[in-house]
Amino acid sequence: MTHASDAGLRSVVAGLGSRLPRRVVSNADLAKVLDTSDEWIVQRTGIRQRHVAGEGETTSTLGLGAAQAALADAGLGPADIDLVVVATSSPDYTFPSVATQIQAALGMTHGAAFDLQAVCSGFVFAVATADKFLRSGSHRRALVIGAETFSRLLDWTDRTTCVLFGDGAAALVLEALPAEEANGRGVLTSHLRSDGRHRDKLFVDGGPSTTQTTGHLRMAGRDVFRHAVGMVADVVNDAFAASGTSAADLDWFVPHQANRRIIDASAEKLGIDAAKVVTTVDLHANTSAASIPLALSVARDDGRIKRGDLVMIEAMGGGFTWGSALIRW
Ligand code: UT7
């Protein structure tokens, strides 16, 4: 394989697909078993329903379904892929990775597959990582998957967290193309940040090396909210500066889907027209690393996102981690 120079290759979107669990749980369903209400959840978060994984549905089965849909969309098969990166914080097992399970289920015995964990920022971190692999010339086509079953990390008696999350998966196929063939398309820039001092604001209180249990998600929601808008604006502005673009140039702003109020406040702070904001938190709730590719799938399938559009993705999550990537679709 030839190793093209970094400047010579672009990571271009070749396909997109998603898979949601069959079962849909509405706010009203939750209000039957918890001291909560549809009104509270909608007003504070914008969430109306979430998909929850059932028997036989795991992070890897959902991720596999998304990967197959993305490959079909790209008109490619497993033989065409040589890199599988799965962003997840809710793997089937401590190991092996979800990525190697999906690789095997696809019938791939070649290439490399690994998981990447940056919680809700996972998909942005995975796109940035795959982009660097592809532009180095070491790999040709990547499946970049966000897949989660956060329902299995939740304390279902804690109304302050369990109403906020859902399960799902979506996948993007990225292909390395010479810049002259890419014709301006591809991942234009990405910006990743983290600051581990914020650990206690959003974490899971278990794990193999501490409690030997899976643990449950714990969150100081107000503290997370307070940091989110500023952090998101910083990395989106970094992407604008690095690419010489501005809010006016964007066709679509596809943020991590945690809370409608965070999304709206971020767009407003950045001067992004509300009509360009893709919001799916009402349908899926917060699906962590799956939320951005699920939102991309909805907006691509309903005809909003089209080839050549300028799309900004961004996320912020546990760690804290946060990041942005600008993609010419
Ligand atoms: O990807 C990053 C992941 N996380 C996030 O993005 C979450 C960021 N934070 C948030 O989205 C918001 O902080 C929440 C939606 C989690 C909470 O909204 P809030 O406006 O910050 O409410 P709060 O936590 O200050 O709670 C207000 C009240 C409290 O009652 P009191 O103390 O005022 O009597 C809560 O006990 O709402 C109560 N409450 C609920 N009531 C009904 C908390 N959860 C619920 C609930 N149903 N599910």
Q: Kindly report the CATH topology of the largest domain.
A: Peroxisomal Thiolase, Chain A, domain 1
Mean pLDDT: 97
CATH homology-level superfamily of the largest domain? Thiolase/Chalcone synthase
**Structure annotation, total helices:** 11
In terms of per-residue confidence, which ranges show pLDDT below 50 for 5 or more consecutive residues? 1-6
Report the strand count: 13
| Global outline | globular
CATH level-two architecture of the largest domain: 3-Layer(aba) Sandwich
The radius of gyration is: 19 Å
The structural domain count equals: 2
Question: What is the class of the largest domain in the CATH system?
Answer: Alpha Beta
Ligand catalogue: oxa(dethia)-CoA
User: Biggest sheet: strands, sense, closure?
Assistant: 5 strands, mixed
Helix content: 25-40%
Strand content: 25-35%
Sequence of secondary-structure elements: EEHHEHEHEHEHEHEEEHEHHHEE
The SS-based structural class is: alpha/beta
CA-CA gap between termini: 26 Å
| Strand line-up in the sheet with most strands | 1-7-6-4-5
What does this protein look like?
This protein is α/β, with parallel strands linked by helices and 329 residues long. 33% of the residues lie in helices and 26% in strands. It has eleven helices and 13 strands. It has helices spanning 27-31, 38-45, 59-74, 98-105, 122-136, 159-162, 179-182, 221-243, 260-270, 281-284, 291-301, and strands at 9-19, 23-26, 49-52, 83-87, 112-116, 141-149, 167-178, 186-194, 202-204, 217-219, 252-255, 310-317, 321-328. The radius of gyration is 19 Å and the shape is globular. It starts with 8 loop residues before the first strand and ends with a strand. Oxa(dethia)-CoA binds next to helix 2, helix 6 and helix 8.
